[in-house]
Design brief:
The chain has about 190 residues and is α/β, with parallel strands linked by helices. About 30% of the residues lie in helices and about 10% in strands.
Length: about 190
């Protein structure tokens, strides 16, 4: 019988040694090695964007509550009309470009049926005079100005799209094809 006890002891020692080896090996394998994990990557915080200043627009004509309204940057004429309580039944909406972007300080005119008022962005009848508003004019309206062809008219629209609303007529000087002489010719025919 001593041989069986001796074999049991050997088996018990081998099992204990195996358990110790497995525990130590598992612990070593579970620890991340220095070369296996890359260092953490630092990501810069996103730059804060400047908060856009509110736009103020004057809504007049065939609307329920005409007045001065504060809108967020990127607003459209339709947003301004909604703030003014919507249009009346007499509004002639086909003369208003509801999709046009609003510029700060702009006046949105909603004409009444039967009136001779021309809304911003609508083409005026040939007998009607008045300045062409640079911030709301269409390509056709700009093209009709003396010395401004379709190419220069498109450059004016591109400039307006890229830089925002015109603050003054003098900004036309920044557009290629409009020099001091052309600017002097246009000064009485256009408005910001």
């Amino acid at each position: 019988m001593p041989e069986i006890a001796l074999d049991r002891r050997r088996v018990l020692v081998v099992v204990v040694v195996l358990l110790v080896v497995l525990a130590v090996g598992g612990r070593l394998l579970s620890k991340p090695g220095r070369a296996s994990v890359p260092p953490p990557v630092r990501v810069a915080a996103p730059a804060r964007t400047a908060v856009a200043a509110p736009l103020f627009v004057h809504v007049v004509g065939a609307v329920r509550r005409p007045g001065l309204y504060r809108l967020s940057d990127g607003s459209r004429v339709a947003d301004a009309l909604r703030r003014a309580g919507g249009t009346t039944r007499r509004a002639q909406l086909e003369l208003v470009n509801l999709a046009a972007r609003i510029a700060d300080g702009e006046q949105v005119v909603v004409p009444r049926r039967g009136s001779n008022v021309v809304a911003a962005g609508a083409s005026a009848p040939s007998g009607q005079s008045g300045p062409v508003h640079l911030n709301t004019a269409t390509l056709e309206q700009l093209d009709s100005l003396p010395g401004v062809g379709p190419v220069t008219a498109q450059k004016i629209l591109d400039y307006r799209q890229e830089h925002g609303a015109f603050g003054s007529v003098d900004e036309l000087d920044a557009i290629p094809g409009i020099g001091p002489a052309r600017l002097a010719q246009l000064r009485d025919l256009v408005a910001p």
